[in-house]
Structures
1.
Amino acid sequence: MNLDSKIPEGPLSEKWSSHKFNMKLVNPSNRRKYNIIVVGSGLAGGAAAASLAEQGYNVSCFCYQDSPRRAHSIAAQGGINASKNYQNDGDSVHRLFYDTVKGGDYRAREANVYRLSEVSSDIIDQCVANGVPFAREYGGLLANRSFGGAQVSRTFYARGQTGQQLLLGAYSALSKQIGLGKVKMFNRHEMLDLVKVDGHAKGIIVRNMATGEVSRHASDAVVLATGGYGNVFFLSTNAQGCNVTAAYRAHKRGAGMANPCYTQIHPTCIPVHGDKQSKLTLMSESLRNDGRIWTPKDAEVAAMIRKGETDPNSVAEDDRDYFLERKYPSFGNLAPRDISSRAAKEACDEGRGVASTGLGVFLDFRDAIKRDGQNTIKERYGNLFDMYQCITGDNPYETPMMIFPAVHYTMGGLWVDYNLESTIPGMFVGGEANFSDHGANRLGASALMQGLSDGYFVLPYTVGNYLGKQGVAAAGKVTTEHPAFAEAEANVKARIDKFLSIGGTESPRSFHKRLGHIIWEQCGMARSKEGLEGAIKDLQALRKEFWTNLRVVGDADGINPELERAGRVADFIEFGELMCRDALMREESCGGHFRVEHQTEDGEALRDDENFAFAGVWEYKGDDVDPQLHKESLIYENVELATRSYK
Amino acid sequence: MYTLCNFIHSTIGRKILMALTGLVLVLFVMGHMLGNLQIFLGPDVINAYAYKLHHLLPVTALWAVRLVLLGTIAVHIWAAVTLTLDNRKARPQGYLEDKVVQASYSSRTMRMSGIILLAFIIFHIAHFTVRAVPAGMKGGEGGVLKITEVPLVKDGEAVLKNGHEEMTFNVNDMMVLGFKNGWVSAFYIIATGLLCMHLTHGFSSMFQSVGLRNGLWRKRLDRAALAYGWVVFIGFAIIPVAVMAGLLKQDPTGGLVSQVGETAAIIESLEK
Amino acid sequence: MEKTMDLTLKVWRQKSANSMGAFETYGVKDVSEGSSFLEMLDTLSEDLVEKGKEPVAFDHDCREGICGSCSMTINGIPHGPEKATTACQLHMRHFHDGQTITIEPWRAKPFPVIKDLVVDRSPFDRIIQSGGFITSRAGSAVDANAIPISKVTADYAMDAAACIGCGACVAACPNASAMLFTGAKVSHMNSLPQGKAEKDRRTLAMVTAMDGEGFGGCTNIGECEAACPKSISLDMIAHLNRDYATAQVKNFFNPVT
């Protein structure tokens, strides 16, 4: 597997501009001869499809939702970072770059992060021009807020719906191109395989989820922007439909999968309420600015609270353990996501958890209300309090909120080089689906930035570069008549038939839940060698059981949610195993990956830069063959590696 | 390329036409009501008012005004009917359980109130303008309301023109007689009630249709519409009520003597 | 412990776009009051699968009230009885033990049922495609602070842009009118300085597209506003009417396209 990162020569700050100059261009009149497939219509996919079509390429865009406007980018609440320095507080391209590399626990590629930071300003300009109604000050200029992990105010936001507004901006640009006929949009279509011709990505096989029709689509390049794999945990803050299938199918066709064990657990989610729950809801991290996180010191008190026999308000100050304030006095309740999440888990593991399941800690606004008054708190967090009350039925002004960490984002993904091209030539990967920019931990408000950077400003150049290199003679030459398409389509159909014909007794959802349980327990917030080894065995057994005891009701001729889920869960089970292997391989703790064997005396993550400053890239070798690990060394020329400390 | 045709065929275009015609009708209704209420100032005043209406403009212009009013109603109805048909087409299947959350009763019954109002307008014109309705009038030919002329009176004195007494319709008696019939009065009162309902939605809604309304003014206009509707209702309904209650009487000095026996009897008794 | 309830569900079942649909009645037991309406439907689905029957198909995705996928009329009200709440954010504590709940798909000619509770909302996409955008090529934008926009304008645009495109407005309207949806998008883009260049074109094109899809007209009754999970105001419809009238007048004297 060739892991040439293709980082351009020259000083960091000139890499992208010199690379842009050196890239091949395609003559405007030739662009219409090329077809490009974009899978996914979120920030990365939607923006890429719109921008490529605007340049003149013929684009086919696919999404599993009933409209490109519903991609899960829409759910991002907080904001989008940009190094505009509008607040005159010392921000710069270099500072955003540095914060992102540090926040990622020094496991991201410098050159990519720098480019991200460079184009971040252009993103804001582009979005404003597109009509995104960012929050403004009375003077008419853009407002900013600060976010975790940064000492400057660089986050642009549109109420609590920044992701929605940015996505609608990209969607409107995409819609314009659809209206002009430059983009052919395929809603309710799910990519089920990648087609390679002579080693290059030349098309995909999709299933129309509304009619059941399986069809072939050929192109000169394929862009995957299919999001993250958080739903491998079953319960996550991801949308129900988020899946790893497209990425995993591409992986099986030869694309390297990098750092799958890097997952982000967000500390402020609403706890699980029972075994029927389908989804975890995130609440903005900003709540930690005023809320104090605690559990009872005494496990017995916690048990009484769980049973509803004790009112949390009646627990005396001395009997409360404000564990973040105790452990991290300088950052207190504002410690980074990974650290806060782990601390909450530890408290619950000691039996001091609250909520009916014992998996919850208090986020208490009592003192803030006493200090600032209820109205002030209402002004700051009113909508979040309402949302909490809507979901839980509890009034957070009167009784402390309960929170628990939940899977939120996945930093790992398909390996890409500086051009966002995977190990399969002609297949590009953007957004959360690739592994590139966040290292082992993502900072708040950076996901939107990365998606749009890839979609608006990177892929439109680098895809053109690839096409230019292939030459115009190759444009549109591969058609769906090529035997590779027939082979891939036959595989897809056979798999669908297999799902329907197993005739077992257990539903796809049930398998998904069992999968999620294994992954959460063994490959969640804390991972151990023993646990991971056990998990790999369990997952292999689960996979066998899945293929012999699955029950999919209905048929393949139309909408069949069971069939859809079966396909996704099948890939998740295999992918989960890969995650565990990656976590097992990485004998260190970094960012979202915490190995219990590798911690300091007081329980902090212990990185091993000497042996693990690399991206771990897995190559698929066969269904029952161990995957092969390849390493891309991460070389830091501009940032000095240091230990993160929040004490 | 967008044309006028395109405007008229668009749903919004037709709603704007409805609003504009509605505005004309809203103003007409108010004028009509203020005119009618002059009956309380005495027969001379209302009859003089009728004279003014008939002689202010040349006959052709009077007919032009009448036709514009009828045309306005026609456009209003055309827009309503075509929109309703389009709307029905857009929702061929309703819900098993259909609940209304915030729409007012009057807003949901505009079509029904409109249809009944149309029937009323036809009756009203036939009744008082064309005078061709067999409404069980005592003494009329075939029960149709008859009208006589009386001398035009101004400041208590008969107006002379070319040395002769200028005559005018005896509108006062026409109304009083017309409303003596209980069924007719009831129909008038119900119809003006429906008009009130139609207006409580329509008055505010027309501002919405032309885009001159926002959240703040919606509340104000809704209140204004309610007030307007009630004023119109009371202003119109009070006349048949007053007639039925005997508060409004026929002009004792003249007019309908030869046509209506009842009046003749009154005059006779007066002469005695 | 959380309270649970037993419910009777009357659900619209329809095999495909071309087949006839009918209501079927199911019972679900032990629904916890903390679960969401869609989780209650998940429970029903699992029960049905258990019995070898096909589960009820319904659109859903983010389950946090923002993607706009979920679309079902619950007891006669799109997204159910709670104000400003999507079906996925509706919790079962708003129902009671023993209740019968009727669940129907959006009813509108332009939104044909594909299966069970799933409808085709692509007309909304086509309305946007006709003009619901502000043209700006990537890379061609001026500095974001080059054009100051008053907070009032930005807030108003945001109020309009909050629309999630779920279609509840159409579903709630007895005329299946898409005026609230179209009005929201037009208001959002026409009110911003960036959107002024294409204002008249946009308005005319979007209204023509909207009518062309077969949506009914607006009768200003406000059921859409009441059903809207994002509380989009009727003001947006007035705004659309105003901009449409202006555009038509301008167009009459000097064609805008």
Note: Chain B touches chain C through 48 residues (CB under 8 Å).
2.
Amino acid sequence: MENPYLPYPVRIDDIQIATEDKSLKTFKFVFLNEGDEEKFSYHAGQFAELSIPGIGEIPIGIASSPTEKGFVKFTVFKTGVVTSYLHNMKVGDIMGIRGPLGNWYPWDLLENKNVVIIGGGFAFTTLRSSIVYMLKEENRSKFKNIDVVYGARSPGMLLYRDELYEWEKRDDINMHITVDGTDDPTWKYNTGFVPTIVEEKAPKADKDSYAIVCGPPIMIKFTQPSLEKLGYKPDQIIMSLENRMKCGIGMCGRCNIGKELVCKDGPVFTLEEINKTPKEY
Amino acid sequence: MKVIKIDKNSWTKGIDKSREAYKLFGPVKDKTIVIFKELEQGMFPEMEYTDSVLSAKSVIFPQTEKILGGSLDESIEDHHILKRPDTNYSPRAVLGIRPYDAKAIQLVKLNFDTEDYRDPYWCDAYEATTFIGLAINEPSAFDFSTLTDTGPFGEEGLDILLVDCKEEYLAKVLTDKGETFLKASGFEESANTKPSLKTIKALQSKAEKAITSKIDSSKIKDKTILELYEAPFWDDLAFSCINCGTCTYVCPTCWCFDIQDETRGKTCSRFRNWDTCMDPLFTMHGSGHNPRGEKTQRVRQRFMHKLKYFLDKYDKGIMCVGCGRCVKHCPVNIDIREVCNTMNSYEKQE
């Protein structure tokens, strides 16, 4: 059997600054060895360890969609030793990727359902992967209505802006883009915090509705009551958690919430499942 | 059941013979304490010890282990590509491991050898190892292994159980691996099975009777995780803890680890090191947020993991083998037996 600690060698193929404050960059990687891309086949919602030899590893959600071939994409916030080093790396540099890791959004369950996707700040990466996956021609008919509420501090802090504005123009997805505040007089979308916009714009729940929520802890906390008001039950609210991780394969012991390991049993849980565990995330 | 008789006068000669086929590990005196180490030529296991300060877990799971390595020199091919180092996994034998430590390795195996992933470093070391146990004739005051499904003569996880009978060892041959080791050592004199098993039985019941601790975990499985997690006693239990982490390092069933990279010139290495859930850094997020930032949360995590999460997850009992090391070495006298009894007898007030 293969060594789960051994990363696939990759080359940085492209680096894009993702936000106006330059704290986030999107890295596009291509696999060095033929066959590795296939071995890395993933589902929207999974994550991977970005592995820089001599520096260390970081767990990051996969931002590209399984429907996009030839590369994998990650958007990384500069915060610690590894992410700061990564932000200074160049196109052409060699590093590693280990994964895919963790579970994913329950795509089988979501078939023929209404899906509302709620994201805030940097936590839009696996949601971007999900939207691209759902909007792909051969997949779109598998889902009923798709709504997206996505908010950031200001217009320049929204990730994947070009794609957001493209999706805004489509009639098979309802976009509700919002910012906390802006002094831009031409801003034509929403202003207000995500929980408020959810309450105002997100569709009411019926038995065929699911919400996927991913964002900072404070956003998650205040979005829950909004979803409850709209009629979403704990088993209809799907969340992706984060915790400090090292191994990513359920062995090193630090990311647990109760007996569940966020890296292996998660990162995706329903609120119903989370309600049964200690809130150690 | 085959029993082999080993005259103590031929013990060192047999050990030396076994070195031709095995790399040996065993308990040795290191200054004032006994720990498990590789036995180089001329070194023999300390067989008179009561408790080793550290368990034998390091034979399978070293305190520091290089898991990957590579070169950062861009002028050579394969630079920045990590590879597994060439570790020697030829047959090894650990001599004089106590029954509770052998049982602990079986519990830890549930973590490292799973349906989804196999940790190759742990599993390769485990598979290469023959476990030669030494029964505990006189348990220490800290030993409560009879209450954790092990006991001073427990056989789980062992290939051979040695019983010290003054002039000789009686060796119960438990597996084929054990038989192979005894052959390689030249220990082949069969004992008369019936009377020797009787001798062993007598020593066993004497040893078991010497353990007088009381610990009961039987009711923990009927309580929910949240019931115990939210119980009011954690602040009191954690009050004196200084988060030194000693309990986690001396514990034979603690397996948590950290992964760290190091560079020396153009060479880079990735290591894994024992880690401890008592350290706030263990769970600190990049943002500074820490889900277990408070001492009480960390103490609760350790005991909930050992006595409740593990029990619920694997249905193989609690993650404690009753060696008593954490009780003996805790600088502030936190006692897992008391914690276990407190959890077991807790009834939520409606």
Note: The CA atoms of residues 263 and 269 of chain B lie 6 Å apart.
